[in-house]
Amino acid sequence: MKAFLMHKDQDFDQKQAFPPNEAALSQDLELNTLFNAMALGDEFLFNVAKSAVLSGWSGDMDTILYRQSILKDCLKNPLVVRELYALTVETIEKKKRDYWGFIFKSPGSILRSSVDVLPMFVTMLKRLRAIADTSVRSFDSDGFKTFFAMLKNELGDDYFVTLENHLRELKFRDGVLISAKLGEGNKGTNYVLRSSNDKSAGNGLDFLDGVVDRFFPSTGKGQGWVNYLLRPKSQSYSIYIHPRDESGWNALSDLRDRGLNIVGNALAQSTDHILSFFKMLRVELAFYVGCLNLHDRLAQKGEPVCFPVLFNATERRHSFHGLYDVCLSLSLQQRAVGNDVNADGKDLTVITGANKGGKSTFLRSIGLAQLMMQCGMFVPAASFSANLCSGVFTHYKREEDATMKSGKLDEELSRMSEMTDHLTSNAILLFNESFAATNEREGSEISEHIVSALLEKRMKVFFVTHLYEFAHACFTKRKTNAIFLRAERQSDGSRTFKLVAAEPLETSYGEDLYNEIFIASEKGYPHQNMPVVSVETAACVNDGNAGKSP
What is the C-alpha end-to-end distance of the chain, expressed in Å? Predict the structure, then answer.
């Protein structure tokens, strides 16, 4: 039995390797905030969410649309989906808690262990089938329809009756009937477990027939005085072992295990198959339960979500309305500010403008939405459409680290070099104030060369920068395939945290921070909403533009 709720024709591989840039993605996009919202403290849900989101770009469009339709069903029937998931958890935990198996894995002990646990599995399968029967009409997706049809076909009433009959017989209340033949060296061979009414068992005499034929071949099977003596009218033979005959009991136990070996292994494989089905069903439902948890959190705040419109990776589509940083929203009491952008047909998006104006937040929203879209989730926006990508990569500036063996610029270039080893066409790269650790001219030149190379290889680039020379050069050279966004600033210096399409400016209004931190403090009214600004930020009042006034 297969669930097929993550892929049309294969199981979801939770143990697949994470992308090589997993650590950077998790840090720069604050992914643990997203996973924690999906998990609600459940470690298993956290791990499944992480695996699904970080492996999303390996899927194709059909897989994403397949999951989208299943998730839509989940949002319409959340109680049923949670009930199915709870049933899988209960089954697995009950097996782990109540059925330990046997330390000595002899065929007999394996058989007894399987016969003990199978009735519990039968009960759980019946409950699973009952949920499917009562809920099938409420689901429209191909994934759930196929899943419920599989349960109906493979878990019919006749199946359960047959299974329960076999389980009763395998308890062997009337003893064990085994047939065998005599092989080379007078050793038993072809041990077969027989049903109590199996006529082909020869009343258990196949083994004795072999003895007669081997030692008295002239009489022929069923003829002569030897057969007459060995076969009284009752056709019954009994061997009694003394209670203190340890060797005899060991020999009898060995004969019994030989007869039970095939059946015991077959039954053990059946229990393993059922258990693995419940485990895989739990994994695949866990992804959708995580999505339900996240959806509930966002719905409570009134945040919009939508199912994105997909385009092939070779196209250049990126437009949205009300896109917001879902991780920021999950960390705030109020709703996050969303942005509206139409970047269709563009390879490069350059973001400039006021400090603390929402540029980095916007960049995170781009990366998070892409990851969520490609694993089949809804995205945090009122509407969203984008082309698929071959990977999401981030290059954010890092704070000073005492363990660094070289300067900040060397560290940035080293990370860029490592990233290029894994880049392919149609990847998305998110740069956040990269290459600003040197002067304006050098930083702009480095940024221009790197961006040019990436665009030549058909990659999509989003670049937040305070390097005016770089931003201005892009504006003059790349108007046809680039869009330029600026963090909005009101005339009084306040930020709206909105981005608007606008030409880059020479200043990022660092004086606003200076006035808020120092001037307001001198006047003695630092208000409670004043942002906490690091020494580095306060020192960058010139926005990193050497020689330029703020």
Answer: 67
Q: Do residues 286 and 324 share a domain?
A: no
pTM of this prediction? 0.80
Domain of 348 in residue numbering reads as: 302-506
Beta bridge partner(s), residue 353: 487
222 inside domain: yes
At 446, which CATH number? Answer: 3.40.50.300
Q: How many domains does the chain have?
A: 2
User: Closest Cα partner for 323 from 343, 335, 337?
Assistant: 337
| Residues 501, 310, 143: CA angle, nearest 5 degrees | 150
| 215, 325: one domain | no
Q: What is the mean pLDDT of each run of 10 residues along the chain (550 residues)?
A: 92 90 95 97 97 83 96 98 97 83 62 78 93 95 96 88 75 68 75 62 42 44 43 59 73 64 70 91 98 98 97 95 97 94 96 92 97 97 97 89 72 94 95 92 95 95 95 89 92 88 78 59 49 39 39
* Dist CA 319 CA 384 (whole Å): 6
The CA distance from 388 to 56, in Å, is 10
**Within this chain, do residues 402 and 451 fall inside the same structural domain, yes or no?**
yes
**Which amino acid belongs to residue 61?**
M
